UniProtKB/TrEMBL annotation, chains A, B:
Protein name per UniProt: 3-methylmercaptopropionyl-CoA dehydrogenase
Database matches in InterPro entries: Acyl-CoA_dh-like_C_dom, Acyl-CoA_Oxase/DH_mid-dom, Acyl-CoA_Oxase/DH_mid-dom_sf, AcylCo_DH-like_C, AcylCo_DH/oxidase_C, AcylCoA_DH/ox_N, AcylCoA_DH/ox_N_sf, AcylCoA_DH/oxidase_NM_dom_sf
Domain Acyl-CoA dehydrogenase/oxidase N-terminal, first and last residues per copy: 40-156
Transmembrane segments: none
Enzyme Commission number, as recorded: 1.3.99.41
Residue span, Acyl-CoA oxidase/dehydrogenase middle domain: 162-269
Length: 596, 596
């Protein structure tokens, strides 16, 4: 299995031509993100991803993690890699310099994180969760909490977790029962069990900071009675040194389909009198804080979908160029590399074009987040935040569904060898399969998109996005040639389908909420396909502009061809999805439960 | 994890209403397949599948098979189950009574085999390969070979294999190098290595009959120089008793993503002077014999897709009815079983409707095969054989692609629990993932459909199928109510899309073979979706007829609702696929290899 090679030219193209790195670098606080600096950072990240993390991907899959008496042992090499990772300053790349971060824009951080996901998704989860915890503390923690914990989390010398799920409380956070009782010193005693805690226990860092959703005495029922508590594995003394072990333990590690190197812990708090915790933010406001962590995590899981897809594509491509089998249709009688067979090309192009669409959309959203956070103009911030809010469920939901399919296609390109574990293609499918589930299933993302992001504002944010898509359509119409005509035709159908589906949802959401909800996932897929098509169209237009400016080369031609493939093979599905959104409810809801 | 419960009522509905068991039972040699007898057989098979095979499914997955010094040990319980399986006469259910079979129609055999696949796909592969070997011998073996081997293979006391693939010869059989040299006594010495040999070695039976594709001295190059040789694990004396061990051995067993209980062997022949083999059929005619085995196997792998989908659906449904999580949209504030949530219903209906479409199509094709084999009228035989030939790649290709998606959806219904191996949902995905690869990948099936089944006869067989679909459309138009109107609307678009795509293929195949080949898999999917829609429409019409005849019940209502779901959620994709078939080639073929 070939090691991961970061697609630096593709990344640079998207950063500059689609996401507007130049404009992001003009935002307050982003001044250091010059093109040269970013290029150097990406090159160094690519080296680390390819040389250190990628070779450990299969090692981690085979060895997995082991739990003995509450002590979790990571796979060989992970400890040393993690040390290099934090020594290199990678963990805090996008964090506030006030806490030791590098202060780079989220856009640059997204590109770097894509590399970690591609190279070794299981490894990358540790940092992802640590950064989520840091973000929640940054937003909601007290000054003392920030001072005590943020520098460690930003550096990565301590890691963080999200403790949300309980056996009876999965997608339904309102069912959480974990409880926290106040002590006289202002701290809390925490009791309860949490499941599916990624990196809940490990041997990579000297301390683990658990952020735990729990209920204080007398809290309201449901999600409005959840509070966020900070519960360190080792208590921290006032001078910042580590104190005694807290009353919490890893009960077991799950035996999962994939991401074997990511320890998924069952955590028990308070078996011995109560785990010491500290309230983060106000009582009963835990959900909001958790959403901060979760939104960052959802975008990051979308990047996992992108990263795994890229890795699966690279591996399938390498195999397709090497594997000699069968003769060319209409060609000579000698065997050729399978990349020459039309169906293998179709599979590779299907993977490649969706990878490029996802990358463009991810970086586009990351740039919008930077603008939403840092732009001096409030209206500009708001406009961009609305775009980000609209797109985050698409990035999480659509990217990860794509990743499962793309990893599966990657196996298919390998034929029988793909089914043999030693080949490594199956691992990508096993790893990808969690991404549509955790941090909110695809159904939850689709529900978020439908109700909070489209219905709540009467379709305004989506309408704004569609208006921008129509500007791109107009540009396509001005562009000569069969490729642009094909892209225009499919994209026009796609935008119309999205508008039709969204109008239906807005019109019927109130009086037929169950019927509209049937269309949530088809709508999410439609939105993903069309948004991806928008990005591919912009990519083709940018390539044409650069070619016209005298920079014509095969890379830029490839962008146009790939956009055309996407139009006729991916966007072509859009009208069918609109049909399902607008007509699909009676068939889905009419059966009684006993008729299943 | 619940054990498998055979869906006997669904099966009976399809057997009688779609596949026409009554007409099949009137065919010469099928007279014993009365409704009562078939019902009794299915009930007994259901018991064996649920009580014996199903509990071993997870056992086999966990234990896997082990190979030590060429000896393969099957998982615990498999030996005893296999003994019961052959003692019950299940292996030869559809075989010729002249060789000890039960002589039941292929239609009945298909329903019974579906159960084995659902209950324990890895177990069922042994019998599938044995029956393939028996069929090849029946067609091409000498009288002596038949007398010596068929009774044992039909009984299952000896098992069979297909030895085709070599490291350099996967989809391309022309690259096979295994060679056979004649001995003076008329036998052959065989030399070479074969890979991916299912049940190539095991401890279930006293002998294993390998059918091996090899080249005789001076054979032409490519597929026209392949001969089929019968190579027993233990040589057989003239009196039928077992003689010395042959010169062949299992080198190793592959470490696969799934079907862990099915030993996938690397076989080495002739390390010690040559394995003794016997030519089956004429020299250099091995490909034709192999196609007999392969066509039967392709249909059977389609049944695997159906069976795994049914099993995944049953497990997801059981979970959705048990798992209480979240409150109902627009309902009370109490938590409900997740089956009430619209998106969970959508997933379950998506699984259920495709399972029903696949079952109907599979049994329809099995019945057509019975007619093609046994009908007294040659024109009727020919017409049905053309239908079977057209549909076999669809059954293999579309069912198995569905199975991967349905098994994945089954995991999704389980949420986080689905990713934990102990839940058992992930096994279905791991097991299903081989089905799109072995016995010819989806790309190979699509190529077979496009070139041999559609292009070669200028679209005649497909046109005949479409004409029958249009008869069903006319019946739908005569049926009152919103459900039938919806089914008609989507099916009409589907048939038109299929006709458009097929016309394009027929018109352009000669002058643009590479471009047309890009659309092969989309065409296969389109054909599957529309053929499945045809079956669902016929199912709805039959349910309406039975209801109108005074048998109205919720089961029959359910058939109509499920057909409507299929129309708006599955058939809706058909026009988009026709778009891809007719427009998708430029984007797929324009890139140079270096541009990937």
């Amino acid at each position: 299995m070939a090691e991961y090679l970061a697609p630096l030219r593709d990344m640079a193209f998207v950063l500059h031509e689609i996401a507007g790195l130049g404009r992001v670098a003009q935002l307050p606080g982003c001044e250091e993100a010059s093109a040269d600096v970013v290029e150097a950072i990406l090159a160094e990240a690519a080296r680390f991803a390819g040389a250190v993390l990628s070779p450990l991907n299969r090692v981690g899959d085979r060895a997995g993690t082991r739990c003995h008496d509450g002590v979790v042992t990571m796979p060989p090499g992970f400890g040393e890699a993690y040390r290099q990772f934090i020594d290199g300053g990678w963990n805090g790349l996008g964090c506030d310099p006030a806490h030791g971060g590098q202060g780079l824009p989220g856009l640059v951080s997204a590109a770097v994180q894509e590399m970690w996901k591609s190279a070794n998704m299981a490894f990358s989860l540790c940092s992802m969760l640590t950064l989520g915890a840091a973000e929640a503390l940054e937003r909601f923690g007290s000054a003392e909490q920030k001072a005590m914990f943020l520098p460690k989390l930003v550096a990565g010398s301590w890691t963080g977790t999200m403790n949300i799920t309980e056996p009876q409380a999965g997608s339904d956070l309102g069912a959480i029962r974990c409880r926290a009782e106040p002590r006289v010193d202002g701290s809390y005693k925490l009791f309860g069990q949490k499941i599916f805690i990624s990196y809940g226990e490990h041997d990579l860092a000297e301390n683990i900071i658990h952020l735990v959703l729990a209920r204080l005495p007398g809290a309201p029922e449901g999600v409005k009675g959840l509070s966020l508590l900070l519960v360190p594995k080792f208590l921290v003394e006032a001078d910042g040194t580590l104190g005694p072990r807290n009353d919490l333990r890893c009960v077991s590690i799950e035996h999962k389909l994939g991401i074997h190197a990511s320890p998924t812990a069952v955590m028990s708090f308070g078996d011995d009198g109560g785990a010491t915790g500290h309230l983060v933010g106000p009582a009963n406001a835990g959900l909001e804080a958790m959403f901060v962590m979760m939104n960052a995590a959802r975008f990051a899981v979308g990047l996992e979908g992108l990263g795994l897809s890229e890795r699966a594509y690279q591996q399938a491509l390498a195999h397709a160029k090497e594997r000699v089998q069968g003769r060319e249709i209409g060609g000579a009688a000698t065997a050729v590399p399978i990349v020459r067979h039309p169906d293998v090309r179709r599979m590779l192009m299907s993977m490649k074009s969706r990878v490029e669409a996802m990358r463009a959309l991810a970086y586009f959203v990351a740039a919008a987040q930077d603008v939403a956070t840092r732009h001096p103009d409030a209206a500009e911030r708001q406009r961009n935040q609305a775009c980000v809010d609209l797109m985050v469920p698409v990035v999480k939901g659509w990217f990860t569904e794509n990743a499962v399919d793309i990893a599966s296609l990657g196996m298919q390109v390998h034929g029988g060898m793909g089914y043999i574990e030693e080949t490594g293609a199956a691992q990508h499918l096993r790893d990808a399969r969690i991404t549509t589930i955790y941090e909110g299933t695809t159904g939850i993302q689709a529900s978020d998109l439908l109700w909070r992001k489209i219905h709540r504002d009467g379709g305004a944010a989506l309408g704004a996005a569609c208006a921008r898509m129509r500007q791109t359509l107009a540009e396509l119409e001005q562009s000569a040639g069969a490729d642009f005509a094909a892209i225009h035709a499919a994209f026009a159908h796609g935008v119309a389908a999205l508008e039709e589906a969204a109008a239906f949802v807005v019109a019927h959401a109130t009086q037929d909420s169950r019927g509209v909800a049937v269309g949530a996932v088809p709508l999410l897929n439609l939105m993903g396909i069309v948004s991806g098509g928008w990005m591919m169209a912009r990519s083709a237009l940018a390539a044409r502009r650069k070619s016209d400016a005298g920079n014509a080369d095969s890379f830029l031609e490839g962008k146009i061809v790939t956009a055309r493939f996407y139009a006729d093979h991916v966007l072509a599905a859009a009208p069918g999805l609109a049909w399902t959104v607008t007509r699909g409810s009676p068939g889905a809801l009419a059966l009684g439960e006993e008729q299943f």
